[in-house]
Every structure is written in C-alpha cells, then in structure tokens.
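Ops channel
N.P.: pipeline sanity check, posting one input/output pair.
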C-alpha cells in the first residue's frame, strides 16, 4: 500500500549515525611535523564510532608523545616489536589481525620507502608487512616537504606501494610547515575521517558518471533584489557525496548556497535557472545518470533592471512581469536516446505528494521521481522520501539526509540500465 507521505515526517531521528561504528583502525604514525594532526584525527575517528589502536615509530615520538595518543585513543600505544605486553610476544600479528584497516598518518617519505622495499625494521613496518593483505587494507596519508614528495625516488616508492595494494589519501597542496608552498601536505583530520568513511562504502557506482543539480536558483529583479526559495541544497550535496563515495565521477551544478563541496566532487556554481540550464545541457550527454534535486525557479523577471529600482517618485508598487524558465530536467529527459542520461527528478510538494509525484514523473518523462514535502524539510538535516517509478511507490523511512542519499544511490544502482555509463 502506498505510504501516507505526511506521516513519513513524524518521529525523525535527529543525528546522523556513527559512521565508523564497529570499525577497528590501527592508526600508524611515522615521523613528521604532521603528527600534530594525528591527535585530532584520533578524536575524529573515535567520535565517529571507531576504536583506534595507535602504533608509532621512534621518529613519530619525537613529534608527539605516546602519552597524548594513549589519552586520546584510550588504549596503550605500541611502538616496539619486542613489547612484552603482547602475551605471545607478537604485537605485529595481533594488531593487524584485529584491524579493519591500517591507516598511516602521517606517512613520511622514509616510511613509504621502507614499505616499498618490504622492510620490517620497526613495529609499524612489521605489522604492515604481516597484515592479511586481502582483508586488512593499507591506507597512507603522505606528509612531507614538496621537494621530497616530487623526488623521483619518492614517486617511484609511492607507485610501488600503490601497485602492492596501498591506497593514498592525499596529499594536498598548500602551505607547508617549512614555509614552502606545494604538494605534500597531509590532509586535515576531518578530511582523513571522511576519506576513511568513503573507503568503507560499497562501490555501487564505480565507473559511472553522475551529474547532480542542487540548491535554489536566484532570479534577479534588479542588481540588489531577486526571487529565490528556501532550498538549502543539503539533499543534493548529500547525493553528490554519496555518489562519489560509491565510486562515481560526480559533477555538481549548485545554485547559490554556502555548503562545502563534498570530497572528490567537481562543482560548478551558478546563480539563475538559465545559468543552470546552460551549465547542465552540454554536460548531460557526458554523464550516465542525471539527478535533478535543484529547486529551480519556475519563473524569472522578464526584464532584470540594470539599475536599482528606486521607491522615490513611484506612485504605485512596480509591477514585475515574469517569464518562464527552461525546465532543465524535462530538457535532459528529452535528449535523443544516445545522449540521454538515466534521469531522476525530485518533487517538493506542500500537499498531495503522491498524486503530484506520479503526475510529474509522467510529465517530465523520467523513470524515477523522489518525492518529499518541501517546506517541512528545507534546511533540515533529515528528511523522509518516497520513490515513485513505473511500478509503483516505495518509502525510504525518515533518516538524516546522508543516510537517505546513500539509500538512494543503492536504489539508482539497482534500477540503472546496464548501458548507462
Ligand atoms: N526542474 C528543473 N527545471 C525547472 C523546474 C524543475 O530541472 N525549471 C526539476 C527539479 O530539479 C525537480 C523536478 O524538476 O527534479 C520537479 O521540480 P518541481 O519544482 O517540484 O516541479 P515543477 O516542474 O516546477 O512543477 P510545480 O512547480 O508545478 O510543482
């Protein structure tokens, strides 16, 4: 039976899930000034629900003390292969057998060189070598001076470690502790946490290209005023993030919102519906999936004044003539089959959600419409959705928008024709 959409909004959970709940991470620190970020990273991982076992090299202990890392991880730190605390005296085996991943942050040039040649001359190197390679991934967050990063020896070592199955998080470009600017900076703690969360997501959209529109549009009346709406863009940004986490190449065309760009997402900022249309139309044939979450203004002032409309001397309020904006979703859905991505529309309604969503799906010519009650959800971090396709309706129960976005991505992957890229 079709769900009563208004009822979907009741009793919503307010906070997102602990995204690393149940994950056990061995956090390895090799020597580098970026060790200071490892303290915050530990907190971020623990806050996200992970248990964290810190393993430090001798050089790392020159930069940050094991006391700090023990306090933050709530576990004794390991650094010595001869540590007698392990009852079988095999810390390197025990630590790597329990881990869902080994994350080395910072990974110094020297540590990467040792990994590349399979050395095991300290506990961290030893456990990386001894880990069960099939089920315990090795993740590296390089951190070093830009010349060290660019050096052919480092690049050769990095390529070898990646060929051996290692995964790189970063490095980023920017200001370095030495005062130079360039590649080699370790990602920030929150970025590394998000990389790790993304790493654990199933790669349901690997090899696909996804185009998403998000946010409101703003239609200028004059240089200081305009028509817009309450869309926050959060749902569209969450879908872009979830699609990228699922392994897709994602392009996000965003109306005027202040949200941060999700990791690994290419973002194009626009203001008006016409600009959104102009950005989307040439991109659509290059993508296999098009998800239109934007709350596009249906109308715009027919003439946007180049000068501010002044109140002085006006006998009556100015009449603003409106003209219709292009329908971006309908235009993409009407592309010739060879150029047309698989299209998903959203329906934000104030009432009769299902009736409107069904009609909209047919009118726009798209295989799937995702319905929600607009004003109740604009700007919120949670939502509830109903999926409407040719076979009927399906409810996605109330949850935070990222959880819903991941559920939507799974729905897209399940319904996609195999020909979609
Ligand atoms: N949409 C679009 N371009 C427009 C208007 C809407 O791409 N000019 C897309 C939205 O991104 C959404 C879907 O069409 O995916 C439905 O948007 P909505 O505003 O709910 O529907 P409208 O077609 O504008 O119909 P109405 O305003 O009558 O509900």
């Amino acid at each position: 039976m079709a769900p009563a959409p208004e009822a979907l909004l009741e009793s919503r959970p307010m906070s997102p899930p602990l995204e690393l709940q149940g994950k056990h991470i061995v956090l390895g620190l090799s020597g580098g000034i970026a060790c200071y970020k490892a303290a915050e990273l530990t907190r971020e991982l623990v806050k996200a629900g992970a248990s964290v076992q810190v393993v430090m090299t001798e050089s790392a202990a020159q930069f940050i003390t094991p006391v700090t890392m023990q306090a933050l991880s709530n576990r004794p730190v390991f650094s010595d292969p001869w540590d007698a605390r392990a009852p079988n005296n095999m810390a390197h085996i025990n630590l790597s057998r329990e881990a869902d991943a080994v994350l080395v942050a910072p990974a110094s040039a020297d540590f990467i060189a040792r990994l590349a040649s399979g050395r095991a001359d300290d506990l961290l190197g030893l456990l990386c070598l001894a880990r069960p390679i099939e089920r315990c991934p090795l993740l590296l967050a390089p951190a070093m001076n830009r010349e060290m990063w660019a050096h052919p020896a480092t690049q050769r070592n990095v390529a070898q470690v990646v060929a051996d199955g290692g995964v790189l998080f970063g490095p980023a470009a920017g200001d370095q502790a030495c005062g130079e600017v360039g590649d080699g900076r370790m990602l920030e703690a929150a970025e590394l946490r998000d990389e790790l969360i993304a790493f654990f997501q199933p790669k349901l959209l690997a090899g696909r290209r996804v185009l998403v529109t998000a946010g409101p549009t703003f239609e200028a009346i004059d240089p200081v005023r305009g028509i817009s709406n309450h869309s926050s863009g959060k749902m569209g940004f969450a879908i872009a993030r979830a699609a990228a986490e699922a392994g897709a190449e994602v392009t996000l065309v965003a109306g005027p919102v202040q949200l941060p760009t999700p990791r690994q997402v290419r973002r194009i900022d626009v203001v008006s519906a016409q600009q959104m249309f102009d950005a989307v139309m040439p991109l659509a044939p290059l993508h296999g999936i098009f998800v239109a979450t934007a709350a596009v203004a249906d109308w715009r002032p027919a003439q946007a004044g180049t000068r501010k409309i002044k109140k002085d001397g006006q006998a009556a309020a100015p009449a603003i003539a409106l003209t219709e904006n292009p329908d971006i979703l309908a235009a993409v859905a009407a592309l010739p089959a060879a150029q047309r991505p698989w299209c998903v529309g959203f329906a934000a309604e104030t009432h009769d959600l299902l009736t409107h969503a069904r009609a909209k799906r047919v009118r726009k010519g798209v295989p799937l419409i995702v319905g929600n009650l607009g004003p109740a959800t604009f700007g919120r971090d949670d939502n509830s959705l109903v999926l409407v396709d040719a076979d009927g309706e399906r409810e996605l129960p109330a949850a935070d928008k990222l959880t819903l976005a991941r559920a939507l991505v799974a729905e897209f992957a399940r319904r996609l024709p195999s020909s979609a890229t």
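N.P.: looks fine end to end. Residues 1-14 have pLDDT under 50 and may be disordered.
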